[in-house]
Amino acid sequence: MELAGEEPFAGFGLPGAPGTDAFWAAVRTPAPVADGDGWTTLFLRRGSEAAVIGFESWSEPVPLRRWRATDCWYALVRMPARLRVTYRFLVGEAAYADPCNPAGAGGDRSVAATPDAPPQPHWPAVGADDVLPLPRTRLRWTSRRLGGRRTVRVHPAGGGGPMVLLLDGDDWLYLHPATTAFDSAVASGDVPPVTLVFLPAKDRAAEFGCRPELWEAVRDELLPLVAQSGVPADPDRLVVAGQSLGGLSALYAALEFPGLVSRVACQSPSVWWTPGAPDLADPLGGPLGGALAARLRGRPDLSGLRVAFDVGEHERRMLPHCGLVEELTERAGATVRVSRSASGHDRAGWRHALLRDVAWALERNRARGT
Q1: Longest alpha-carbon distance in the chain
Q2: Beta partners for 163?
Q3: What are phi and psi of 298, to 5 degrees?
Q4: How far is the CA of 65 from the CAs of 74, 84, 256, 319, in angstroms?
């Protein structure tokens, strides 16, 4: 798309001369325009320094160009159909949210979505300066098995009910407003009342690899601590929700601790994982399905397991790994749900799946893909 004239961005619905106060007062970006089977999307930033757009796991960084001798920097980014992605402006070593975009994720990230990306009901737009609500119940967990102390937040959505253990809990507290989203989903009847337990990770690579220590600590230390908190919670109907390495860990727990974990909602689980793979130049280049596929080929009895799989449809290298594990999990007798989100490897794209799949995991007698 050619940019020219005194109103170069008029084709994106932004008339006026770039760099003027009137222009900046009217700007709302990103601004997409249909382009074949995708979208050409305009990003703008006001400033005096060069910057690049850093996208989360979808694209290489994209530099912004200055429009003539103004304070207006822009980039035209070709985006595929059905994409929701986290991004931020990078200026030297500093990162900034997009002040022209009301949808944020924490203080230095924003969220862009193409017009054909499915809606995410219950997730409010959160600006960079907004302070997300924190659950009132705060537990100090000093773990003998894991070492160190961590703060675990507990929130009874709709008065509480089955326990939902959210791995990478700090991301769901400080980047994406899970308490607000679950409250809304429970109020609308899309999710039953649940008790959310936000479990932060200290060392993701160590804790979320296929090792038993985390799940021994959850079973023997964390769940009794939650039971003593006074918040209504049903650990007998526990759902473990995890993404990426957290999704790998949730599936590992279902295989190795079936008496503890029988319901899983996992998004883009890192099932490429094998011992040592994270340190390789190409971690995803190993055996398809990694260590979990090797374990599943032994046909463990998973007849008591309900597991919902979701993967970003733009994660081309993840899809074969996840597809094999999904198939092997169902062959082993589990009740399986499979879906694909309009995203790459990005928490912003998994948010709707988190709510939907937690609700599905708590239902009974539902078949694959329903």
Answers
A1: 68
A2: 195
A3: -75, 0
A4: 5, 23, 52, 34
Contact in structure between 54 and 93 (CB atoms under 8 Å): no
CATH 3.30.230.80, domain 137-361, yes or no: no
SS3 of 63, please? strand
Q: What's the first-to-final CA gap in the chain, in angstroms?
A: 42
The tens-digit pLDDT sequence of the chain (370 residues) is 779 999 999 999 999 999 999 999 999 999 999 999 999 999 999 999 999 999 999 999 999 999 999 999 999 999 999 999 999 999 999 999 999 999 999 999 999 999 999 999 999 999 888 989 999 999 999 999 999 999 999 999 999 999 999 999 999 999 999 999 999 999 999 999 999 999 999 999 999 999 999 999 999 999 999 999 999 999 999 999 999 999 999 999 999 999 999 999 999 999 999 999 999 999 999 999 999 999 999 999 999 999 999 999 999 999 999 999 999 999 999 999 999 999 999 999 999 999 999 999 999 644 444 3
In single-letter form, the type of residue at position 229 comes to S
DSSP-derived 3-state class of residue 150? strand
HSE toward the beta carbon, residue 33, CA cutoff 13 A: 13
Distance CA 368, CA 113 (A): 28
Stretch(es) of the chain classified as CATH 3.40.50.1820? 137-361
Residues forming CATH 2.60.40.10 domain(s) in the chain = 10-113
Q: How is domain 10-113 classified at the architecture level of CATH?
A: Sandwich (2.60)
